[in-house]
Here is the input.
Amino acid sequence: MTNAPLMPAAGAFGDDFVHRLPVRVYYEDTDFSGVVYHARYLHFFERGRTESLRACGIHHSELAAMEPSLAFAVRRMGVEFVRAARVDDVLIVETAFRPQQGARLMMEQRLTREGEVVAIATVQAVCIDGAGRAKRPPQWMRQKWVHYVSEGLQE
Here is the structure.
């Protein structure tokens, strides 16, 4: 037995520059029929985006502590629900960073279960200042981001 502190799941980037985060579906994620409630998929996608940013060295808490503070806001998101997920399923949240467009950070995300696609999301986030105005991400952030830009999620 080790005395190492327990850490939450963080996922990891693969050789294909896609970040993968395993998540389990809990009862609280489901509706009365036992199927994952549609809004909960957004939570899974958010966890994937947060952990992928953390894995490349961009932490929300550090952005908030900066002067002036910075944050990310989802500007646009499209979701396609392909299959139902159910309680106890283990899903993999895949996040692929796409080339940046000005202040916009583009991502593709996919939830899979045992290799089958459950849901797909295309996300456009913007970097904002403390007043909520869109700002071009600082150079240090762009340098971290660009290292993980991929060709997107492959079939």
Observations:
- The two ends are 40 Å apart (CA to CA).
- Residues 29 and 39 are 9 Å apart (CA to CA).
